[in-house]
Design brief:
Number of strands: 20
Order of helices and strands: HEEHEEEHHEHEEEEEHEEEEEEEEE
Number of helices: 6
Largest sheet: 8 strands, antiparallel, barrel
Strand content: 35-45%
Shape: elongated
Helix content: 10-25%
Structural class: alpha+beta
Strand order of the largest sheet: 12-13-14-15-16-18-19-20
Number of domains: 3
Distance between the termini: 36 Å
Amino acid sequence: MPYDRGKVRTHASMFWNKPCEDGLMVCNDRIVSVQEERLLFKAPTADWDAVFDSPPGLSVEFLYFVNRRDRTNRKQTDVGGVAGPPRGHRLDDCTHYAGECLRKGGASIPWDAETPHLVKRLRGLGDVKTLAELADSDTAKRVMATGMMKEGDVIAYFWSGDYQHMAVRVGSSGITCHTHCRFGDDWNLVPGSQCTFLHFGNDVGNSDDSLIRPFAQAMHGWWVVRGGAGLRFYYFLDDGRVRLSDSAPSTQTPPPPLADNPGYWFRTGSTLLLFWAKGGVLPEFAATGSPEKFTGTLGDLTKLHLTS
């Protein structure tokens, strides 16, 4: 089933600053039901909207119930912020929200509230391409600058030894997430963190296909980069994957794939983009007058003609 990026955005635009459609909120100590909070604070659905907001002068978020007839009439709950006596549940809802948005787009993932788990599940989907794994700040900016991270794609943020946060791409270069609630904000949320970029390759409209299929026949096979770093050899598959070898090939047989470091290629106009999960995006190659030669900062990329 093709991934529908428009449905992801539509759902996100409706729920980015309120509890998810399933009526649950993931907190540090347990999963909290919005309905339970309504009963506790005497805020029936007919009269009160549930939203996330911050108290005046504070940056922490809480669940509020806002009266539909008088928006100044607000009830602040103890879901959110810093947990404290007599009861309190600190919001940690980013992965829950991201997963719900992705499922609305057709992603085949189960309900999950743990960011490391959802990252692993997404990377296991056949139509998800890891454009960069644990990219540093400079590499992350280069990945985003290519424009290949589309609406509905996922950025996972890693610090303190594990994935701690997750956001979904919306707009031209923004993201949406819970805890804290954002929609259209800049993607670079956590200075010093590393980012993993997950791109859905089978979407409605076949956006990746248009960057691969017209060039697949010309790109298929072995290529060599000749530059200051010596010779490097690439094998381009006609489905958008690319493999790397440090050894010169003697036949057209492709090298074995690297399971932990997949590579992908895209042709955007006259530019050839290469991505490696472990290395992020390489310097771009520009087309020349010959369909069998590109030029870039790494050197010239030239097609090799070998016997089978």
